Amino acid sequence: MSIHAQKAKDFIANEERTNWHDGALWHVRNKRDISASGVPEWEALRNTASQIKDNVLSNLDTYLIQFEAAAKANGVHIHWAANGNEHNAIIGDIIDKHNARKIVKSKSMLTEECGLNHFLEDNGIEIIDTDLGERIIQMRNEPPSHIVLPAIHIKKEEVGELFHAQLGTEKGNADPTYLTKAARTHLQNKFFEADIAITGVNFAIAETGGVVICTNEGNADMGCHAAPVHIHCMGMEKILPKLEHLGVFTRLLARSATGQPSTIYTSHYHKPESSKEMHIVIVDNGRSEQLAKEDFRNSLKCIRCGACMNTCPIYRRSGGHSYHATIPGPIGAILQPNRDLKAYSDLPFASTLCGSCSDVCPVKINIHEQLYKWRQEIYKNNELPKSKVTSLKIATKVFKSPSTYDFLGKFARASMKALPRFMMYNKFNDWGKHRELPQPPKQSFKEWYKNKNNE
Ligand code: SF4
């Protein structure tokens, strides 16, 4: 069984959680639909965003250099990291230089991707995630299960127990307002004690050298305003050419993510205050390689809204952790094989290829087509399990021969009626483990169609 299948099996063992997780994400998807349908030019916005990103990907080197020059002129320190280790080392050096011991961080999937928290903790540095969902999963010592709603797999009662154990809240109190207030008090102290604040970046503007951070909690701003040093970590694909392009993306991002017209805070950082330091770390970590792959390069258009996860029937019913990757869901399933084809060869198969992900994607990434393409690559690279290769070869032979197909259809219909149950439902029948096979029809569709035409 693949890692995804095993982890999905563990997740769906709790039927109540599975149904509730499915329903919660579908609710977010519905909010996205209502919000998007309120913008008459929605499809035009998607097309424009996709075209802007096409331009960015075709001229990435030029825009990055332009961004670096503009940011340096603003007094910002720019660092380049080829991979996660370099990213962590750069941040480690800044921390050492300032003799810092306490760091606050606002939500950043890039720092998750680079393993920054573990790196800093191993070096004796306290790092506190300040986004509420991120803080909850950090306290549980878990990775996020969703890129926008990192703790969507956790019920409020579980948060109540966690806060009781770690923050001393009232036992049995799972009221969200009460728990949020407790988290706010806990985090307030962390903000004021912090030596350095770290944030992710939603957009970086080549023209101005500024970065833009979208949050609902204002935690990125709180951290950056309170700490004497702030560091912004960005994947190199986050560039937009001009400030005038930003509005296209901010209109799409929050609506696609949660159905809000915009995030509560859309903060622009251009230069440090006179007594402070501002750093930007630009990270590659496999993005150049993805850019070079014609079939997969436009996955770099992703603005991390999470809409493809909320709509995906597999994601909703298997949970984000089943993808065993930093970015889960449909977009994760096309990004991760680029990093390690062997380790993530199961992910492109965790899809029905229904195309709903591509339909909701605000930057029009052809996600389901790339999933299908990755399946072909995985087969060509001999990364498919032998059992799957064998069954696909048999299926190919059957589908290529109408007479064999007709014969096996007849045989299967007769067997399903005649065979005892234990021969139909056993360890070889994965499909039947959780489902009843349908009653076999009296005739095949082909026979029915022929008879109808003869009548
Ligand atoms: S692939 Fe598209 S829908 Fe999915 S997170 Fe990225 S931008 Fe959003």
Quick structural summary:
With about 450 residues, the protein is α/β, with parallel strands linked by helices. Helix content is about 55%, strand content about 10%. It contains 22 helices and ten strands.
Verbal overview:
This protein is an alpha/beta fold. Among the domains are: 39-285, NagB/RpiA/CoA transferase-like (Rossmann fold), CATH 3.40.50.10420; 391-454, no CATH class. The protein has helices at residues 3-12, 15-37, 42-58, 60-73, 84-97, 109-114, 116-122, 132-139, 156-167, 176-193, 219-226, 246-257, 287-292, 307-311, 313-318, 329-339, 356-360, 367-380, 386-400, 402-418, 421-424, 445-454, and strands spanning 77-81, 102-105, 126-129, 196-200, 203-205, 210-215, 229-235, 239-240, 265-269, 277-283. The strands form two sheets. A six-stranded parallel sheet has the order 1-10-7-4-2-3, with helices on both faces. Strands 8-5-6-9 form a four-stranded mixed sheet. The two termini are 48 Å apart. Bound molecules: iron/sulfur cluster. Iron/sulfur cluster binds next to helix 14. Residues 444-455 have a biased composition (Basic and acidic residues). Residues 435-455 are annotated as: Disordered. Keywords: 4Fe-4S, Electron transport, Iron, Iron-sulfur, Metal-binding, Repeat, Transport. It comes from Neptunitalea lumnitzerae.
